[in-house]
């Protein structure tokens, strides 16, 4: 299939921030960039190298998702190169959080698709509705909404992936692989393989304070307050949408090495939290409405259901917060997990250490697809 057939024209209403649009409106097929290997000790927290963050060409685009009585403009990117080799497709899903963005996967995607291999790997990265550069209307965001979106994005007759078929590899961070596995368990998504990078299933408040009836009532009160006009926006600005909060979040648990939290990283994430409707989906995430399961047992069952059916890679991050790391470590040797690796990083190793993550993911692809050709 010709690559050009995938390039759906952007909607006239779709816009990126001027700085971002100018920086990334490059043509899709430019000359390949050179990759530089960076060696680091697993006992140290390496800093990000320039080679890690070197941009690669991609196609920015949008898709109109019809949900209930609304039409949302969904932002996605296509990464790939022209090649005579057979093509296989990867869908990359960002972690769900107040700073969720396709940017966390850009360097990984560029690294993988530009490699010379027996398969022409092509990647799509998509922003979840209510997050990143996608539209953020005032919806009752919950896990069913996100699962419905994922299913539609993959299988809709007018969708960006309508020609991809069911032979799909999915890479996801945080909640994303868990939502994907829930959809797969219901038969809504057919997987060729899946990689879960720093996987989670509980939002920030439930993972710390639990989900008893008293806490659920408090979560609901907080969520309703964050969604109200005026007061909700003021609270979101104080709690999340400011330089101190974003920097603290990244230094405490998003990145492993505080030196990697640069002003550019902080500024770009603040810009995301200032977008119209920015607080609605994060309010649901913070209070557990986007949690795909309610217990660690259910979480493990999702992976067990794929045992012997689909290759599954789990990437755990050494410096993740204690409770989040316990979730990841429970998958070591778990039924259904084909391969388990541990890498430097915290909750966004794919963004902080993209070269390392790309190497682990590419090895996984080779072991399950290329070596058999």
Automatic annotation (TrEMBL):
SUPFAM superfamilies in alphabetical order: alpha/beta-Hydrolases
A GO cellular component entry from the record: chloroplast
Annotated InterPro entries: AB_hydrolase_fold
Superkingdom of the source species: Eukaryota
PANTHER family: ALPHA/BETA-HYDROLASES SUPERFAMILY PROTEIN (PTHR47914), ALPHA_BETA-HYDROLASES SUPERFAMILY PROTEIN (PTHR47914:SF1)
Listed name of the protein: AB hydrolase-1 domain-containing protein
Lineage, broadest ranks: Eukaryota, Viridiplantae, Streptophyta, Embryophyta, Tracheophyta
